[in-house]
């Protein structure tokens, strides 16, 4: 395995199916560009005469669009920015905080990352979209699913405040799991 000598940027991107690592090699003398997603080579270009530009690829199970922008900043210096679905990584992650809830939990010695996509009510666990069953209850809704042999549900209750909207709570084996901050 050749050593990554031209590694210029590394990003961590939290998506519903997990946290993905994006690495970018840019050989400014050879014109080489290589993009790795989770250690797997996605794009390799040798002898690019134009050193600026962009590389577009997909990340994760949902094939989320990602673009690395290569811009010159003075002499032989370059700036590398990552866009996810056409937004800067920062904007994308800020938006994700509003549209998803994430919980990290340990059950029987195994670690699980549970993600709720609020717009679709899809539930993901460790990279897999789960089968769920929705149910109306007195004060809101419950979305039931299993993690291993544990019964789980996400309870959605109105906060009573317009700005806060709906509060989602993960219950596993009748105990509440605190939300994670990624």
Automatic annotation (TrEMBL):
**Main location as per UniProt:** cytoplasm
Q: What does this protein do?
A: Plays a role as an inducible effector molecule that mediates Fas resistance produced by surface Ig engagement in B cells.
Source organism per entry reads: Merops nubicus
Keyword Transmembrane helix in the entry? The reply is: no
* Record's GO cellular component terms: cytoplasm
Q: Which family does it belong to?
A: Belongs to the FAIM1 family.
Any GO BP annotation: apoptotic process
Q: Does the keyword Cytoplasm apply?
A: yes
Give the protein name, as stated in the record: Fas apoptotic inhibitory molecule 1
InterPro entries from the xrefs? FAIM1, FAIM1_dom_sf
Cell location: Cytoplasm
Task: Write out the entry's keywords from A to Z.
Answer: Apoptosis, Cytoplasm
Database matches in Gene3D superfamilies: 2.40.128.180
